[in-house]
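User: I've been trying to design a sequence by hand for this structure and keep getting stuck. Would you show me what you'd pick, starting by listing the structure so we're on the same page?

Assistant: Good idea, let's start from the same input. This is the structure you sent:
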C-alpha cells in the first residue's frame, strides 16, 4: 500500500468545491520550454518555479521549486527533496500546503517526478525502486546542491514511496545528502510491502490501479503520441513483474535496508503509525542503524501526521525542521538532547474505524526498551490461555479444517496489517482460539509479540496466521496484533521448502509491532488459523492442520509487557493550518465532496457453490486550472471453499481527463486467477481520445506457483 488518493499523493479528506483562480491574488509567469508547462506562481510569500534537471544520459526530470518569494538574489538555502512518481503537477496544491511550513522557515523545497512519470522525460522506470530511479536520485541531489540558490546541503523526506526512496538514497550516501525524514516506509520490501504480505501472495487495488496512474500522459497537454506509447503505454505492467518474484532474494534485497543496516551513514528520522502496514521498520531502524537516528510512533494510518487519520495528529514538520536545522544548518535545536523515541501508547477502543484513538504520548530512550518483561502464555487443552507450564510427557493437539475464505473481518477494509479491522468474532469462529481469565489489572504491551507454534498439516503447503485480540466483557473482539508465516518459509523466505504431510514443525516468528493497554476485566485472546483472505491468497490444498498444545509441543505467545512508568512526555504541537492554492478542488461524488477514494464493499456468499466474493468500488474527481480528472475503479476477490486452488481477482480502473477541446481516457482490465500449478495473469490497457480507441495492448502469462 502506498500513498492514499492514488496518483496525486494527497490524503483522503473532506474539501469544498474548487475555488476559481483570482489573478489579483496570484502572480503568474509562463515558463519557456520545449513543451507546455504549468505557469510559475507567486502566492502567500512562496514562488513556485518549474525547472528541468538533466540526467547523465540526456533525459530531463521535471521539478517544481518552492522558494521564499522575498529572498535576496544572493541568498542560499538548504534544500529539501521529495522524489515521487505521483505526478507533481496534479499534486501542486497539496505540495504547496505541505511545503509552506518549511519554506517559511528558510528552506527551498523541491518536488521531482521520477523518470517516465508525470511531466518527466524518459521511459517509465521498470518497477518500483530500480537502480535507474536511485541513480537518477543521486544526480538530482548533486544538481540541487550546486544551484546558485543552494547552500550545498540537501535533506530528503516523504511518506510511503517518498519514505522508501529516502531510505534507499541514504543507503547510497551521496555526498550532499545530509539527513532524511522517512514517514510510513519500510526496511523490508518482501515481507512488509503490498506485493507479498508476510511473504505470502497478496493483490490489492493499489497494485493494479497504480498501473494506469503510472502510464497517464504528461500534463498539462496529455499527448497520445508515439513517444507516449513507447515510453509509458507499452511498458510491462509492474504487477506482472512482482508476481514472478514469489520468494525473497536479490530482487527485493537490492532496495531493502534489512539486507545491510550499516549501509546508512546519513542521520535518519523515522515516523510510523500504529494503523499503517509499515510500522515495524521504526523500532528495527532505531535498534540497528549505526547513523544518528530518532523515531516517532503515533496513532495514525497511512497518512501524514499533520493530516491525521485518525486523531490525534501532531505537527511533525516542527520536529523535522528541528532535525534538518541541526544537520543542514548546524543550529543547536536541542533535538539531539531529547530521548530518541516518542511513542503513542494506545488504550482500548472497539473494533472498526474510530475518529480518535485513546491513549497518551511517552518518551523512551530508544529501542529495545530495557524494562520490557517477556511474559509467556500457553494455549491450553480447554482453550484457555495462561502462564501455566505445560504438562511434561503429555502430548495433545487441536485440529482445524482449512477454510480458505476465512479472514474477512481480520483483513478489514484495507487488506493489510494496518487500518481498522472489524470485530474479529467472525474470523475467530473458524480459528483455534484460547482466552485468558479476565485481567485483574490493566496490562500494557509494547513491542513485537512472539509466536511459537508446533504444527502439522496433511498437505504440502499451509500458511499459519496468529492474531492477538482484546475481548471486552460484552464479547467484542478488537485485533491488537497479528502476523502470518508460510510453512514453506519456515527456514528461509529465500529458499522455501514444501511441508512433509503429518510431520510436526516448530514455527517461530514475531507478530507486527504493537502497543496496547488491555483494561482490567478484559481477556486476552490468541487465535490461530490458516487463512486470512482476501489479504492473503489461499493456499491450494484442502487440508486439516494440527496445533500442539501440551507437553514439549506447547504452542504459545510471548507478550512484551511494559511495567507502569512515569516517563516524561513529548510536547508535540497540534497541526498548523496550511494555505491552499486557488484553482484546485474536488468533484462532488454522491452526497459529498472528497479528495480520496470513495469505497463501497459487498460480501456475497453462495453456500451451494461454496464460493465467496468480495466487491469494492470507488471513484473520485479532481479539478485543476487546466483540466478535470476523474477516476473510477471496481475490484472483486473470489475464492472457493470446496477447491482452495480456485481463487481469483478481477479489476477495472479508468482515468478520464477532460480538456477544453478533447477527452483522454486510459483504462485497464485485470484478471488474475489460479489453480494448483499456476497463477494466470491477463491484463489489457486501452487509450481513447474523445471516446475513440487509439491503442490497446494485452499481456497474458501463466506464472508458476512457487510455494505460494
Amino acid at each position: 500500500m502506498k500513498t492514499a488518493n492514488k496518483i496525486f499523493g494527497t490524503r483522503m479528506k473532506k474539501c469544498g468545491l474548487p475555488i476559481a483562480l483570482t489573478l489579483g491574488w496570484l502572480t503568474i509567469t509562463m515558463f519557456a520550454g520545449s513543451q507546455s508547462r504549468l505557469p510559475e506562481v507567486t502566492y502567500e510569500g512562496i514562488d513556485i518555479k518549474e525547472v528541468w534537471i538533466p540526467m547523465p544520459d540526456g533525459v530531463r526530470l521535471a521539478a517544481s521549486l518552492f522558494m521564499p518569494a522575498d529572498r535576496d538574489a544572493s541568498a542560499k538555502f538548504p534544500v529539501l527533496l521529495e522524489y515521487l512518481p505521483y505526478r507533481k503537477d496534479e499534486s501542486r496544491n497539496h505540495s504547496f500546503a505541505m511545503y509552506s511550513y518549511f519554506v517559511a522557515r528558510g528552506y527551498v523545497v523541491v518536488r521531482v517526478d521520477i523518470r517516465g512519470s508525470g511531466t518527466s522525460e524518459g521511459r517509465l522506470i521498470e518497477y518500483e525502486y530500480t537502480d535507474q530511479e536511485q541513480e537518477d536520485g543521486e544526480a538530482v541531489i548533486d544538481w540541487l546542491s550546486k544551484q546558485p540558490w543552494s547552500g550545498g546541503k540537501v535533506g530528503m523526506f516523504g511518506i510511503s514511496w517518498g519514505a522508501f526512496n529516502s531510505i534507499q538514497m541514504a543507503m547510497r550516501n551521496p555526498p550532499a545528502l545530509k539527513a532524511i525524514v522517512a514517514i510510513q516506509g519500510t526496511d523490508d520490501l518482501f515481507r512488509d510491502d503490498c506485493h507479498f504480505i508476510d511473504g505470502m501472495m497478496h493483490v490489492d487495488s493499489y497494485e493494479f490501479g497504480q498501473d494506469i496512474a503510472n502510464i497517464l500522459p504528461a500534463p498539462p497537454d496529455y499527448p497520445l503520441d508515439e513517444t507516449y506509447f513507447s515510453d509509458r503505454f507499452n511498458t510491462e505492467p509492474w504487477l506482472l513483474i512482482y508476481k514472478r518474484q514469489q520468494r525473497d532474494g536479490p530482487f527485493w534485497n537490492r532496495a531493502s535496508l534489512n539486507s545491510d543496516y550499516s549501509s546508512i551513514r546519513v542521520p535518519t528520522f523515522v515516523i510510523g503509525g500504529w494503523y499503517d502496514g509499515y510500522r515495524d521498520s521504526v523500532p528495527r531502524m532505531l535498534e540497528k542503524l549505526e547513523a544518528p537516528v530518532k523515531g516517532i510512533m503515533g496513532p495514525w494510518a497511512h497518512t501524514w501526521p499533520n493530516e491525521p487519520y485518525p486523531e490525534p495528529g501532531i505537527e511533525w514538520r516542527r520536529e523535522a525542521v528541528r532535525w534538518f536545522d541541526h544537520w543542514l544548518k548546524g543550529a543547536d535545536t536541542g533535538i539531539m538532547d531529547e530521548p530518541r523515541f516518542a511513542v503513542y501508547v494506545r488504550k482500548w477502543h472497539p473494533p472498526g474505524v474510530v475518529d480518535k484513538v485513546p491513549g497518551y504520548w511517552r518518551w523512551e530512550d530508544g529501542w529495545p526498551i530495557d524494562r520490557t518483561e517477556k511474559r509467556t502464555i500457553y494455549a491450553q487443552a480447554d482453550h484457555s490461555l495462561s502462564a501455566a507450564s505445560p504438562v511434561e510427557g503429555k502430548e495433545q493437539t487441536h485440529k482445524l479444517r482449512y477454510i480458505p475464505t476465512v479472514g474477512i473481518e481480520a483483513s478489514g477494509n484495507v487488506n493489510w496489517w494496518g487500518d481498522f479491522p472489524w470485530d474479529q468474532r467472525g474470523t475467530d469462529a473458524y480459528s483455534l482460539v484460547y482466552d485468558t481469565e479476565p485481567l485483574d489489572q490493566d496490562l500494557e504491551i509494547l513491542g513485537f509479540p512472539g509466536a511459537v507454534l508446533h504444527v502439522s498439516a496433511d498437505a504440502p503447503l499451509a500458511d499459519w496466521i496468529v492474531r492477538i485480540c482484546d475481548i471486552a466483557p460484552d464479547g467484542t473482539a478488537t485485533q491488537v496484533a497479528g502476523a502470518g508465516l508460510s510453512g514453506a518459509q519456515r527456514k528461509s523466505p529465500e529458499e522455501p521448502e514444501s511441508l512433509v504431510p503429518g510431520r510436526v514443525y516448530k514455527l517461530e516468528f514475531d507478530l507486527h509491532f504493537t502497543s496496547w493497554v488491555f483494561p482490567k476485566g478484559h481477556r486476552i485472546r490468541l487465535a490461530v488459523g490458516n487463512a486470512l483472505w482476501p489479504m492473503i491468497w489461499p493456499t491450494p490444498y484442502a487440508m486439516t492442520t494440527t496445533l500442539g498444545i501440551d507437553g514439549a509441543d506447547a504452542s504459545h505467545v510471548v507478550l512484551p509487557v511494559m511495567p507502569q512508568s512515569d516517563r516524561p512526555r513529548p510536547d508535540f504541537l497540534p497541526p498548523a493550518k496550511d494555505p491552499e492554492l486557488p484553482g484546485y478542488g474536488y468533484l462532488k461524488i454522491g452526497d459529498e465532496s472528497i479528495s480520496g477514494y470513495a469505497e463501497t464493499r459487498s460480501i456475497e456468499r453462495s453456500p451451494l457453490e461454496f464460493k465467496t466474493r468480495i466487491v469494492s468500488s470507488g471513484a473520485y474527481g479532481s479539478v485543476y486550472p487546466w483540466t478535470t480528472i476523474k477516476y473510477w475503479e471496481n475490484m472483486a476477490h473470489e475464492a472457493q471453499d470446496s477447491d482452495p486452488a480456485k481463487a481469483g481477482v478481477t479489476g477495472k480502473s479508468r482515468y478520464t481527463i477532460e480538456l477544453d477541446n478533447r477527452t483522454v481516457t486510459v483504462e485497464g482490465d485485470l484478471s488474475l486467477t489460479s489453480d494448483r500449478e499456476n497463477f494466470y495473469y491477463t491484463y489489457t490497457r486501452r487509450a481513447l481520445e474523445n471516446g475513440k480507441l487509439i491503442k490497446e495492448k494485452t499481456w497474458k502469462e501463466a506464472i508458476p506457483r512457487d510455494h505460494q
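That's my pick for every position. To get oriented when you compare it with your attempt: The chain has three domains: 26-199+248-364, 373-561, 585-623+627-704. The mean pLDDT is 92.
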